[in-house]
Specification:
Elements: E1 5-15, E2 18-27, E3 36-44, H1 47-53, E4 70-78, E5 88-92, E6 107-110, E7 115-117, H2 124-145, E8 155-158, H3 163-174, E9 179-183, H4 189-193, E10 198-201, H5 202-205, E11 218-223, H6 227-235, E12 237-245, H7 259-263, E13 267-270, H8 278-289, E14 301-305, H9 309-317, E15 324-328
Helix pairs in contact: 1-9, 2-3, 2-8
């Protein structure tokens, strides 16, 4: 293929620890080596993208760089037999958008092992409404429902207006679970539309955090934020309940003792969507495309273009972004 140019968001470091973002021409020949070249139609905005876009070296070590941990598009070139030119595919997680040029550019080149064929039941845009956030929510739900049924009681979802939380709430409600949401935002419209039964403010939820164990309330928990909120959720989980943990935006620390685990048999399950094995990854995407795809999905997102990312990045870093943001690169 000729070395043609395409548009990409490029984060540069003109001075040490000073970062700027611009939409610039990038070139195919500058993409990393890989098995599959993909023309990106859609990406999405995640918290990790905002960190990469602002120079967080815990996410991206070297600049210039193109963020975007999600991408969905059409295969332009393939040197493997399992994935053909013209197929629609999804790439999320692994190193995409972290230290490998990501989905905020119109082309990516990646290893075969990173690529999921678009499952029947989803179009490319819908796959990015889910994106890494929906996939993470799906992993959490898959692990929770192996043990917890709807008749066991309420499921608590924290950070419920964020990407993972809102998608988890939507899927769980669709599957017949009674969902209680914890949110720091006053506007409850999104959560009401997702079928959430009860909404608790973050301040109210954290009113009584000192006791080592609290009244039993939740059959299961999907936590997206960590810190005191996760600790409080664990303390108030019912006997033999399941708690999944996938985020640390509130804090990476877990201020808790062992009582909920040894007195109630609560299980805390970590969710690692970045290095999830492909067999499990494909199974979760199939569920999201079929039985877990809820009616309100197409109303849960804003669609923007590359030149509109700036404001959204600022909002997500402030914790003020609701639902999902899909980036149209086509």
């Amino acid at each position: 293929m000729d070395n043609f140019s395409y548009k990409a968001v490029i984060v540069e470091e003109p001075e040490k620890n000073k970062f700027i973002r611009k939409i610039k021409d990038a070139y195919i020949d500058d993409l990393p080596k890989g098995d599959i070249l993909i023309r990106v139609n859609y990406s999405s905005l995640n918290y990790k993208d905002a960190l990469s876009a602002t120079g967080n070296r815990g996410v991206t070590r070297q600049y210039p760089h193109t963020p975007g941990i999600d991408a969905a598009g059409i295969v332009e070139e393939s040197c493997v037999d399992t994935i053909k030119k013209g197929e629609k595919v999804i790439v999320t997680s692994y190193d995409l958008g972290m230290n490998t040029k990501g989905g905020f550019g119109q082309y990516i080149r990646v290893p075969e092992e990173w690529v999921v064929k678009l499952p029947e039941g989803l179009d490319l845009k819908q796959s990015m409404i889910f994106g890494t956030a929906g996939f993470t929510a799906g992993m959490s739900i898959f692990k929770l429902i192996q043990t917890i049924r709807p008749d066991h009681g309420d499921i608590l979802v924290t950070g419920a207006t964020g990407g993972v939380g809102s998608l988890a709430a939507g899927v769980l409600s669709h599957l017949g679970y009674s969902v209680t949401a914890v949110s720091g935002k006053a506007d409850t419209t999104l959560l009401n539309n997702l079928g959430v039964k009860t909404i608790i403010s973050r301040d109210e939820f954290l009113e009584n955090i000192k006791p080592p164990i609290l009244k039993e309330q939740w059959a299961g928990v999907i936590d997206t934020v960590g810190g005191d909120i996760l600790a409080t959720a664990i303390k108030s989980t019912k006997q033999d309940g399941i708690v999944t943990c996938c985020g640390n935006v509130a804090s990476p620390d877990l201020p808790i003792n062992v009582f909920p685990f040894i007195l109630r048999g609560v299980s805390l399950l970590g969710i690692d969507s970045q290095h999830c094995p492909m067999a499990f990854r494909s199974k979760v995407w199939e569920n999201l495309a079929r039985d877990w795809k809820f009616d309100y999905l197409d109303n849960i997102y804003d669609e923007i273009f590359l030149d509109q990312l700036e404001d959204k990045i600022d909002l997500i870093l402030k914790g003020e972004l609701k639902g999902r943001t899909v980036v149209n690169l086509s």
